[in-house]
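Q: Given only this backbone (339 positions), what sequence would you predict?
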């Protein structure tokens, strides 16, 4: 069921702010746990943006290849709107020949619609493409979006794409994607590979350098906010990899790890962590998001979305991600947009 909550303004010339709460689902297996279902039911979620598959460039085959296709293990209420989402790497558009773009759009449209049959009680009215395009790939990516929209037009399916903060500020260079609307990714805004970064997931100081440009952006926007956390592993000052959903409790063994500064640990001896081999001297930066930071993010964004109707999405629907938040926390974030 889609619940629309509104706040009446004293002035009849003003419109109330309307949010449609939803989640991203980013795992390859759609099998909801009782906790995940509880969040959906308690929040009366009306949208679920489900990653159907990834697309990356295969250098051996010299073509774009789908990966990590979704497997559906449990049903989803027909009252919840499904938005199929596809992640495409930027390097796909660096290497794809112009003559192959239309064929790629046809293959992706066909695969999305085939996978949508795994949700037989749902109709599809919106599809989202997630790609962090660059100046060098803009022309190819926008051409792909136009071709894909043409594939979907006869089925009355609209197209959305993710938008990063830098693509808002530098819109004259990055361009406006040819889609019906965008999803503002209000996360992953810092340099994760920089050892001096404190929190690349949600840096509100950095965000404020970009948000003033939101009023000038011509596309209607939805909002995505982060719930996840991770550890960033450094070796000799160079980022090695991310350790998803790493908790500080997993670094509590003082014989293996020592806290050097808030949010930073050093490995004291060769050891394993979550199946990953660590070397003595490796450094780990733990990045996370608090309820207070989510509320502050809502405060920053609220003036630019006041009086509008938009999807408010949380990334992402996973029991381990939801551990640090309650239903009441997310309700409060939603309410903050309507104050």
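A: Predicted residues:
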């Amino acid at each position: 069921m889609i619940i629309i909550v509104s706040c009446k303004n004293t002035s009849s010339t003003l419109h109330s702010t309307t949010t449609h709460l939803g989640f991203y689902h980013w795992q390859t297996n759609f099998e909801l746990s009782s906790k995940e279902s509880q969040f959906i039911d308690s929040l009366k979620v009306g949208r679920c943006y489900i990653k159907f598959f990834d697309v990356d460039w295969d250098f051996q085959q010299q073509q774009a290849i789908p990966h990590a296709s979704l497997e559906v293990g449990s049903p989803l209420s027909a009252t919840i709107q499904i938005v199929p989402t596809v992640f495409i790497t930027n390097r796909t558009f660096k290497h794809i020949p112009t003559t192959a773009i239309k064929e790629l759009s046809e293959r992706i449209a066909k695969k999305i619609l085939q996978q949508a049959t795994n949700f037989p009680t749902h109709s599809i009215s919106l599809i989202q493409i997630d790609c962090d395009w660059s100046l060098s790939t803009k022309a190819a990516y926008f051409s792909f979006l136009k071709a894909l929209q043409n594939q979907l037009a006869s089925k009355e399916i609209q197209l959305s794409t993710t938008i990063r903060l830098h693509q808002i500020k530098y819109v004259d260079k990055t361009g406006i994607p040819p889609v019906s609307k965008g999803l503002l990714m209000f996360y992953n805004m810092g340099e994760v590979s920089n050892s001096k970064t404190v929190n690349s997931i949600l840096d509100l100081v950095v965000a404020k350098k970009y948000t003033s440009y939101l009023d000038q952006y011509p596309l209607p926007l939805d909002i995505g906010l982060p719930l996840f956390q991770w550890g960033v592993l450094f070796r000799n000052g160079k980022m090695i990899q991310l350790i998803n959903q790493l908790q500080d409790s997993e670094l509590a063994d003082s014989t293996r790890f020592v806290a050097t500064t808030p949010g930073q640990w050093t490995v004291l001896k060769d050891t394993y962590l979550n199946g990953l081999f660590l070397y003595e001297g490796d450094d780990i930066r733990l990045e996370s998001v608090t309820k207070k930071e989510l509320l502050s993010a809502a405060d920053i964004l609220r003036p630019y979305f006041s009086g509008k109707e938009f999807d408010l999405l949380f990334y992402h629907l996973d029991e381990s991600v939801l551990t640090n938040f309650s239903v009441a926390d997310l309700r409060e974030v939603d309410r903050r947009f309507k104050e």
